[in-house]
Design a protein that fits this description.
CATH topology: Porin
Strand order of the largest sheet: 1-2-3-4-5-6-7-8
Radius of gyration: 22 Å
Order of helices and strands: HEEEHEEEEHE
CATH architecture: Beta Barrel
Mean pLDDT: 83
Low-confidence stretches: 183-190, 215-219
CATH class: Mainly Beta
Structural class: mainly beta
Number of strands: 8
Oligomer: single chain
Number of helices: 3
Strand content: over 45%
Number of domains: 1
């Protein structure tokens, strides 16, 4: 009986470890910035240092689910723009943002860890998230729609990296403390919200890589 229990325990352990081997832990580093009523079109305007961490569960070489937590800052000032209206309005804002998101990732090419050859793949992501905003004297949280694009590259059998650009569509128009006058025009309503962005690099480590302990499984 004890031998049977040991065998069952080893088989169960191998199954659990195999499931865990399909996961990454990673860190993010880069910049955050915003588009809205003050900055309408200038990309990478007033970037602030941002960083974060993530957990990715790998479904297969094409699909994965990623949960992330990022921190950054968003800011803008009318005086940075050369038009009379903004110069006279003289508005500005600053807020810290903690961004929590769950996204589904799709790799255009099969992306696999390998020590024998380099693999890479462009990818897209999308999901649901929450933004926790910390303005001076004011705290709030709002639902956001996260989506992004990037390119992944494996660095070794356990390490991979990625360059990414992620977008956050908010459902508020006072992120920058400025709110547009409501319009009956659908186009203006559609583009009436503030956005923020993360751009940078990810480094990830494949956790619990136990193939050598469970040789029956093929990675």
């Amino acid at each position: 009986m004890k031998k049977i229990q040991i065998v069952l325990f080893l088989l169960l352990s191998c199954s659990i470890l195999q499931a865990q081997s399909k996961a990454d832990l990673g860190i993010f580093g880069g910049a955050s910035f915003y588009l809205g009523d003050i900055n309408k079109e200038r990309l990478l305007y007033a970037p602030s240092l941002s960083f974060g961490a993530f957990y990715r569960y790998i479904l297969n070489p094409r699909y994965a689910i990623k949960a992330s937590l990022n921190y950054g800052a968003l800011k803008a000032n009318d005086n940075d723009f050369n038009n009379d209206f903004q110069q006279s309005r003289n508005a500005s804002f600053y807020t810290n943002v903690v961004d929590a998101a769950v996204q589904f990732e799709f790799n255009f090419l099969k992306f696999e860890y390998s020590s024998r050859r380099m693999t890479y793949s462009p990818y897209v992501s999308g999901g649901i998230g929450m933004a926790f905003l910390n303005k001076p004297g004011n705290h709030s949280y709002d639902v956001v729609i996260p989506f992004g694009v990037g390119v992944k590259v494996n660095l070794s059998r356990r390490l991979s990296g990625a360059v990414l650009w992620e977008f956050r569509k908010t459902f508020i128009d006072n992120l920058d403390d400025l709110e547009n006058i409501p319009s009956s025009n659908w186009t203006s309503r559609l583009h009436n919200n503030d956005w923020y962005y993360f751009v940078g690099i990810n480094l990830s480590y494949r956790i619990n890589y136990f193939k050598t302990l469970c040789p029956a499984y093929d990675e």
